[in-house]
Amino acid sequence: MRGFLAPRRSVASLSQKTWLHSLIQSSPARFALLIFTALILLWTALLSLPIASRTGTMTPLADALFTAVSAICVTGLSTVNMAEHWSLFGDLVILLGLQIGGIGVLTLASILGLTVTRRLGLRQRLLAASDTNPARTTKGSSESQAIGLGEMGGLLAAVALSLLVIEAALTLLITPRMLVAGYSFWEALWYGFYLAASSFTNTGFVPMSEGLAPYATDTYLLVVLALGVFLGSIGFPVIFALYRVVVRGGWRSHKRLGLHAKLTLTTTIAFVILGWIAIGALEADNPGTFGNENFWQTLMQSGYMSVMTRSGGLGIIDPTDMNGSTMLAMDMLMFVGGGSASTAGGIKVTTIAVLFLAAYAEARGYKNVQVFERSIPNEVVRLAVSIVIWGATIVAASTITLLHMTKLPLDLVLFEVISAFGTCGLSTGLSEALPDSGKYVLAATMWAGRVGTVTLAAAIAATSRRRMFSLPEERPIVG
């Protein structure tokens, strides 16, 4: 019997291996989705263990799952008190989860493969490429890519190096401030590293029981945290591009920056400034926020909150104290989020930039969308439209569901839902008050916000087909 069973096991093993390779080659995004979901389930199991909580009891499934999704999706929303509920083991699991979620599952796999084998094969390059740009490509596409396959090794090195260097630098900058606040050396070092990782990965978890409220007027700490969030939100391809520019000839060689880097930096800075002005102006007369602050404090705190809407989530002001107009402005900023292939969420700044450029080209009667002496293909415009529509659909469905469940005001629910979809982490406190069913809905929103638009982009690219015929044109009335 053994002689007959052994070949069967070999055939089954070979079949599974072939299926896995076929899945990786045909749809890296689906493979990433599978691994991403598996990681969430594993983290849920780990956080459910008694050792993960300070009380030594099992964490309820809804809370463990919500925290696992929030960590892996680098969101920062929580249904429990992060500083008091989790043990050291639980905190380490959460920190590891947000690091994995921040750099991307396929990127991490490619880095580990490169470390072990000392070489990067074509399959690993394709996996890494699909993680940085899932819509890389229709067959036969000839337009220039932001990162070429030949540059994947350099990009992966930049991802690993920037993660280590930036988080280490942020830790060194934050730790002395924690020492001044009265913490012991090891507490200060732990809080410094935790905040560094939380800011660079744009997660927004805070390890101190009092949160960041005591540091609302601390210019030094706020600037450091905002810098960490900004660097994480622009994306690894942009960091890699900036590094190449500096190495190849200093800032005078800025023209060597690719279209993606220029568009990301320009749009990100524009949205930060617009958000800065909007938040400061709308809250200037609000006694619950900036009404009793002087001009410089208002300027600093409004600028900080604008950066946090990139997807940072390290808030210093309770959104429920803000005016409804301010919350709506922040909803828009959080929905946009940060840069593509970054630790930030949202529909991404390049998506909204492409749509604005397309609208401008249409208004001027141009046939092509052009910017920075480059032309943007129509396929990219169509993809941007699809991402916005599906993103808005996810937000609408989740908001309607939670409104029906909670019967709470629209502005509070919408703010929480967009914060979840944009993996931002700024909260009105709704997450902690939700029933278990509501926690599952919001967890699904976080999951969809982190992987949904990416999967959609990959699906559109993978399902493009050439038709051998063309139907007669007829123009419907639009607008």
How are the strands ordered across the major sheet? 1-2
Shape: globular
**C-alpha termini separation:** 73 Å
Helix percentage: 55-70%
Low-confidence segments: 1-9, 109-128, 136-143
* SS summary, helix count: 19
Main pleated-sheet profile: 2 strands, antiparallel
Number of strand segments: 2
- Average pLDDT rating: 81
Cα radius of gyration in angstroms: 23 Å
| Secondary-structure class | mainly alpha
Strand content: under 5%
Structural domains: how many = 1
Element-level helix/strand string: HHHHHHHHHHHHHHHEEHHHH
Write a structural description:
By secondary structure, the chain is mainly α. The protein has one domain (27-135, 149-462). The protein has helices spanning 2-26, 28-48, 61-72, 82-85, 88-103, 105-117, 122-132, 152-180, 185-200, 219-234, 236-249, 259-283, 295-308, 324-336, 349-364, 378-406, 410-421, 430-433, 436-462, and strands at 369-371, 374-376. It has a two-stranded antiparallel sheet. Strand 1 (369-371) and strand 2 (374-376) form a beta hairpin. Helix 8 crosses helix 9 (185-200) and helix 16 (378-406) crosses helix 17. The longest helix has 29 residues, at 152-180. The protein is globular and about 70 Å long. Residues 1-9, 109-128 and 136-143 have low confidence and may be disordered.
